[in-house]
Amino acid sequence: MTATVPGTRHGLVPVCSLDDLVTDLGVAALVGDTQVAIFRLDDGSVHAVQNLCPFSGANVMSRGITGDRGDEPTIASPIYKQVFSLLTGKCLVTMDKEPVAGGPDLAVYQVSIDNGQVMINLAGGE
Amino acid sequence: MGAERVIVVGAGMVAQRFVQSLREQDEAGRFEIEVYGEEQYAPYDRVALTSFFSKAGPEELLLGAPELWDDPLVTLHRDTRVQRIDRKAQTVSLDNDVERTYDHLVLATGSSAWAPPVPGVDLPGVFMYRTLDDVAELRDWVRARQAIVGRPVRGAVIGGGLLGLEAAGALQSMGATATVVEFANRLMALQVDDSGGEALKSLIQRLGVQVKCGVATSEVAPDADGNAGTLKFSNGGEQLVDVVVFATGIRPRDDLAREADLPVGERGGILVDSACRTEDPSISAVGECAASESDQGMSIGLIAPGNTMADVTAHRLLGGDEVYLGADTATKLKLLGVDVASFGDAFATTPGALEVVYSDPFSGSYKKLVMTDDASVLLGGMFVGDASSYATLRPMVGAALPGDPSSWILPEGQAERPDLELPDAANVCSCNNVTAGSIRSAVNDDGIHDLGELKSHTKAGTACGSCLPLVKKILNTELEKSGIEVSEALCEHFAMSRTQLFSAIQVAGLTTFTEIIERFGSGHGCDICKPTVGSILASIYNGHVLSDDRAALQDTNDRYMANMQKDGTYSVVPRIPGGEITPDKLLVIAEVAKEFDLYTKITGGQRIDLFGARLEQLPDIWQRLVDAGMESGHAYGKSLRTVKSCVGSSWCRYGVQDSTSMAIALEERYRGLRSPHKLKVGVSGCARECAEARGKDVGVIATEKGWNVYVGGNGGFTPKHAQLLVEDVDDETVFQVIDRYLMLYIRTADRLQRTAPWQEEYEGGLEAIKDVILNDSLGICADLDEHMTHHIDTYEDEWKAVLNDPKRLAQFTSFVNAPEEPDPSLAYVTERGQRRPATTAERTALVHASSTSTSETESPS
Fold this sequence. Notes:
The complex is a heterodimer of chains A (126) and B (861). Chain A has 126 residues and is mostly beta strands. Chain A has one domain: Rieske Iron-sulfur Protein, CATH 2.102.10. Chain A is built from no helices and ten strands. In chain A, the strands form two sheets. Chain A has a six-stranded antiparallel sheet, with no helix packed on it. Chain A has a four-stranded antiparallel sheet with strand order 5-6-7-8, with no helix packed on it. The N and C termini of chain A lie far apart (28 Å). Chain B is of the alpha/beta class. Chain B has six domains: 4-112 and 252-317, 3-Layer(bba) Sandwich (FAD/NAD(P)-binding domain), CATH 3.50.50.60; 126-248, FAD/NAD(P)-binding domain (3-Layer(bba) Sandwich), CATH 3.50.50; 330-417, FAD/NAD-linked reductase, C-terminal dimerisation domain (Enolase-like, domain 1), CATH 3.30.390.30; 421-481, Arc Repressor Mutant, subunit A (Orthogonal Bundle), CATH 1.10.10; 498-554, no CATH class; 638-798, Sulfite Reductase Hemoprotein, domain 1, CATH 3.30.413. In chain B, the strands form eleven sheets. Chain B has a five-stranded parallel sheet, covered by helices on one side. In chain B, strands 9-16-10-11-12 form a five-stranded parallel sheet, with helices on one face. A five-stranded antiparallel sheet of chain B has the order 21-22-25-24-23. Chain B is elongated, with a radius of gyration of 33 Å. The model of chain B is unreliable at 853-861 (pLDDT under 50). Chain A binds chain B through residues 1-5, 15-16, 20-25, 27-30, 33, 35, 38, 41-42, 52, 56-60, 63-70, 73-74, 76, 78-79, 81, 83, 100, and chain B through 492-493, 514, 523-527, 529-531, 549, 551-556, 559-560, 564, 566-568, 615, 811, 813-821, 823-825, 840.
């Protein structure tokens, strides 16, 4: 693996092999200057959101606990335990706190798997 | 003053109840009440007589609110005996020659202890067990003999009923040996059958009390000094004794009534009708001195029927029409910590009655239900050793019991128990006559939603308390019906509480989250249930926190075995048992801190915290520490943190025990033990308590003779001092009681519940916990001991294990596509010679500065 992936704002960027992802254990990836948190769930799906936790300002989302609320897969921040949807990035539980870095929701990035490679598209981030 | 005078003869529990009941109902103040008692005390809790030995003084046994005796309409005359009743003149004569007239007379003279007329029953050293004075004299005698004989005082109790076993417990608690001698072929012959008697005998013998059944005592022979010295039995046997207690039964005290020509029962007791009136309409009799037609003219030696008679009499005086329907002889007792209960037709005397029996010789419990011949309706039951179903089943007597009757007596979890809906008329609290209907009405109509308020409002559970679990269940059921949330569910994925989930996982032997959520939950879990299950699995099996699918269950601290700080970096704390560390190890810590530029601070738990370590640095840092012989301090876990100690007798001028060695032994014993919340322990080498041990979950404080162990202390948000568990014990006992205390806590506490609130909310409180740990009242001590032994035997240093496992090490990388690259967003400033995370304002300034290429920040690499 290379030390850093050349940053690009457009199109899919390969970040790792699907085999690098352990079910329910998130990883962080550096895509240009952007930190992305990537999760593989037990249904085989792969999700990517911003690694920055809006409520603490630390890049830690990849180290949170996955789960679900109803049918919606979620990720909980390890710092103050806010819960976010992995599908929409929406903050579902604020724990009565105000965000310190941007809005309360996470940016969600498009993920595709190509030949066992996990590809992230930062352009889809919102 | 009241227009009519009520005189109460006797100042015992039932007299107190009568006065309280009449004063509560007589709002107009129609009656003035005079109470005459021959004892020097105000009415006290005779049922709890044995607790006198563990209480500070007689005043702790006093009954009811003291204001009752300050009421201007109530006068209590202690030390005063009524000599005679003149029915014609409506007067009583007192032993000071005063005569008092009455409008109504209530006899509540109770009963007296009866001893068989064997030779020697009046020797010094022979005692009865009935009054506070009896118990105080017994205590003084045992203490005095102890000083003379220089070995444990030999005690014997004649009579293996309720009071006899209480007395045996009292002897043991004073350090005397105890032998119970029972004439019948079993203990507690009135409450249990032969099999139950056998179970009780073996449970009590396990506690060190000798039991002889089917043996008659023929003589108490004197020793050389003329004190009780030898018990002689009718079978020719003998036993040396220093003290003998007769607990061979009671006789109703009906002499006053006999002398006044009031009719008495065949076997004694003043005859009364269902309104508790004697033949003379202005005289009533209540409690053990009375023999009611509702009880077939028999006197009943239980407090609950006495209280009912007192209430009926008070109600009648005010013109009511309540009747006493006869005694509910259901009893639940705790004798020497062993539960004994029976209710309804416990001896299966109903024709065709079926007996469903469960007996477990290992735990010693014996349980029996008596059902109608078609096994549909509950007639009665009997419990020895484990009476946990008593409160639920007793009110169901005469009602259909749904499901398989055996489900109620098999150990919990072995069979599904159907939900019971009690009929409104079912008597839930037999002490105070409270029905299920009146509890429901208090919840629904009076809007009482709190157990404490419900108790004071309905009086349910305020006497013996055995019905409280049932009262709580009714409360919760009613609240649920009205849509008020009382859920104990862990989260949306598990409907169980942590305690229930713990035993479910343990019983089912499940080891992975996937199996557990499939079996007991739903969905994929969340940040609440996953760490809880992770902690439970670690508590039960003590496997590595990162093994199998467990890594994904852990909060980030456990997942990376370090404490996450506000900027996403971690702090590292090596274990320093008891706070003792060599200069060489200090040097290693210092070198590591310098090399990785870690902010260094001494913790409150006598160790050293190294801050600012990045995820990918943790393995390198730990390799250095492990190579130098250090191990994980579990500062990140819901687990044992530290055992704080003072230096103790090895250096200190005042220390009486070696607190440092004890602290190290405890820390090495419990290191790595996962629990519902963090655990802290302290050990002080003398009563000066420099280690502040009573602020810890477990505090061990040296005494001249050994150690005192305190439990349930807390710093934090709601500080609590730890409470005394055992006194003056040796090292081995310290380990044993703490093993059991911690394991019981781990098994039964709620998620994130510290020991202090757990101890308060545990059913029966610290006393019940003591009973489990010290008297093995649940029969689980062997299991708790084994569980802790397993933990100790299987302990491994988590960090060392990870360093040896390339797969787990692979998780410790900053970026999946750049494993060595530091998080570029980290920024620090220097303060007092060390770094700390930059504030937002400082960060903005830094970005500006770095764009102009001069920076004071330290690079995160």
